[in-house]
Specification:
147 residues, alpha+beta, Immunoglobulin-like, elongated
Length: 147
């Protein structure tokens, strides 16, 4: 069978090529992993004003909040919170892969430090977010680190 080449054949082959490319691209996008910042982003958006109040309460303590990592990871809370009961959590947020996020309940020692083993972390960038309540006031402290 001999194919007769004319305008119609060229248009048909162009359409087939475009549809094949489109099918290939759809198949590739279905394999793409979607990396959300959080599963409850809508609820967090609704509570944005509460979060901003926590940040406002924490502004004067942000510079004293520090995360030091040598043999272990030490989260140092500001001296203002020494000897006071803090209820909350420390989130180690990994922007590149949310499945590697790690959360710890705040348990400080007498020096106002929380010591965490490095076995929980991979090399790379983390954003340390401490969200807690102390004496009826909510606080939010944040620090970026790299392991």
């Amino acid at each position: 069978m001999k194919i007769k080449w004319n305008w119609g054949t060229g248009i048909f082959l162009t359409i087939v090529a475009m549809l094949s490319f489109l099918a290939f691209m759809v198949n590739k996008t279905l394999d793409y992993k979607i990396n959300k910042v959080s599963e409850d982003y809508y609820e967090r958006g609704l509570n944005h004003s509460e979060h901003m109040q926590k940040v406002k309460n924490s502004l004067s303590y942000q510079e004293q909040f520090d995360v030091i990592h040598t043999d272990v990871c030490t989260v140092h809370f500001p001296d203002f919170f020494s000897g006071k009961e803090m209820n909350g959590r420390v989130l180690f947020f990994r922007p590149s892969d949310y499945t590697k996020d790690t959360t710890f309940t705040i348990v400080t020692d007498t020096n106002n430090n929380q010591v965490i083993s490095l076995e929980y972390f991979l090399k790379g960038k983390y954003i340390v977010r401490a969200e807690f309540e102390c004496e009826g006031t909510d606080y939010f402290l944040e620090k970026e680190i790299k392991f």
